[in-house]
């Protein structure tokens, strides 16, 4: 079947644009573009056939369908040549039943979607495989692209550098100096990217990278480019597939630049349109209190949005005051009876620490989502019989300094409830024995 997709204006302007065209905004109104699929063609295969096909591909090693993204290629980027796919076996991440943590909140059916269990340690891989693959095909077809660039708070730069290295394409990343972890900084360096550390925040990096993207030969990789959202939308599809094609009652997702919540809604929209599901979940976007422009807009009924200057937060990847995908995110929340919550530094740190004591190793952004979950449960918005999924966006291993400072009680303004330090002992059996039994008695 000749499935196709194209760029269309999110505001509904007439006209479509080839996905291999270097274009990010609607030429008529200036709004962002989104990828639209030929749903009529996709409907020629019924829902049962789609679920059967996707389930069969979960266990295949046939290129490129072993990837969680490319196993759904017809719904992601159908006209892409298989030999242009740049995949590091992204997607297909664990849906962890957080049974013990759920019980502490009075929940019976709490799950955490561990998107950080990916090649570079974050959900950014899901979108970057699509974008870099399309660029590889563009270059193959004669487009004069010399490098792919992005502004980043850390995880986007790691994903871009890795996928560009695998594809043999030059990459350049702009980071706010001193505002990313050492792990996040070393990832693009190791993969050979040009790393520019700027004396500004993410929003300042974003302003410069948008100007840079207007130069000939430069292609933009930030989420205002909706190619990335095509990969990220598969999180919604995977969640439903992992529940044997049943829809959870709630999905809670951290929000910074807000492309991820737009992608989440897009995934559910597509399953609804093609008959794979018949109901919608409710969606909660969780923001750090220090970087909460969407939360402030939500409290005003979404009547107006005003950018803010984001303040320092442990959830550094969502320290964004002027999110590019704000309008797409608001539209998603309105379609999904959504809410927005915020978390203070104490709330996010303690939520992450409490979840860790039940088997997770939560990044601070997941801590924001878990803190939002706590508030929704306390208010009664989420009830004990409902199925809830928290989207964990990155591996806690990228934020070990956050963990160390928490357990050493060194996070400013936070008095740690669950600090845990090594017990320093001599090499003497009796002292070790006393320490062990004093801990377990």
The value of Rg in angstroms is 22 Å
Number of strands: 13
- Helix percentage: 25-40%
With helices defined by DSSP (H or I, 4 residues minimum), what is the helix count?
17
Described by its quaternary structure, the protein is: single chain
Q: Indicate the low-confidence ranges by residue numbers.
A: none
| CATH fold description of the domain at 95-121 and 229-407 | Rossmann fold
Shape: globular
CATH architecture of the domain at 95-121 and 229-407: 3-Layer(aba) Sandwich
What's the average pLDDT? 96
**SSE topology string:** EEEHHHEHEHEHEHEHEHHEHEHHEHHEHH
Strand order of the largest sheet: 4-5-13-10-11-12
Q: Structural class of the secondary structure composition? A: alpha/beta
CATH class of the domain at 95-121 and 229-407: Alpha Beta
Percentage of residues in strands: 5-15%
Largest sheet: 6 strands, mixed
């Amino acid at each position: 079947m000749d499935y196709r997709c194209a760029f269309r204006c999110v505001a509904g302007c007439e006209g479509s644009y080839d996905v291999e065209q270097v274009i990010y905004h609607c030429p008529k109104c200036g709004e962002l573009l989104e990828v639209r699929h030929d749903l009529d063609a996709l409907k020629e295969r019924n829902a049962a056939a789609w679920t059967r096909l996707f389930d069969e591909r979960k266990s295949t090693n046939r290129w490129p369908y072993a990837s969680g993204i490319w196993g759904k290629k017809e719904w992601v980027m159908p006209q892409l040549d298989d030999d242009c796919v740049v995949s590091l076996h992204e997607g297909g991440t664990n849906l962890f039943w957080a049974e013990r943590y759920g019980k502490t909140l009075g929940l019976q059916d709490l799950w955490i979607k561990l998107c950080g269990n990916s090649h570079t340690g974050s959900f950014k891989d899901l979108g970057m495989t699509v974008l870099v693959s399309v660029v590889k095909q563009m270059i193959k077809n004669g487009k004069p692209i010399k490098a792919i660039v992005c502004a980043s708070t850390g995880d986007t730069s790691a994903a871009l550098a890795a996928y560009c290295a695998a594809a043999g394409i030059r990459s350049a990343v702009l980071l706010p100096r001193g505002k990313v972890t050492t792990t996040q900084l070393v990832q693009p360096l190791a993969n050979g990217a040009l790393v520019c550390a700027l004396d500004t925040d993410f929003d300042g990096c974003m302003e410069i990278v948008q100007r840079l993207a207007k130069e000939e030969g430069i292609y933009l990789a930030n989420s205002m480019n909706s190619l990335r959202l095509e990969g990220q939308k598969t999180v919604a599809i995977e969640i439903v597939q992992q529940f044997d094609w049943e829809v959870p009652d709630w999905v809670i997702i951290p929000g910074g630049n807000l492309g991820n919540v737009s992608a989440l809604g897009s995934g559910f929209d597509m399953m609804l349109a093609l008959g794979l599901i018949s109901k919608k979940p409710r969606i909660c976007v969780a923001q750090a209190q220090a970087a909460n422009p969407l939360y402030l807009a939500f409290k005003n009924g979404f009547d107006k949005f005003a950018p803010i200057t984001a303040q320092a937060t442990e959830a550094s990847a969502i320290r964004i005051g002027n999110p590019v995908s704000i309008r797409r995110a608001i539209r998603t929340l309105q379609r999904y009876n959504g809410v927005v919550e915020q978390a203070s530094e104490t709330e996010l740190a303690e939520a992450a620490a409490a979840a860790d004591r039940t088997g997770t190793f939560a990044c601070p952004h997941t801590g924001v989502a878990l803190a939002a979950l706590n508030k929704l449960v306390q208010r009664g918005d989420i009830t004990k019989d409902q199925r809830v999924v928290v989207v964990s966006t990155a591996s806690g291993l990228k934020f070990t300094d956050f963990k160390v400072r928490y357990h050493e009680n060194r996070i400013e303004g936070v008095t740690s409830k669950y600090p845990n330090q090594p017990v320093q002992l001599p090499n003497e059996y009796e002292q070790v024995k006393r320490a062990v039994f004093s801990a377990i008695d």
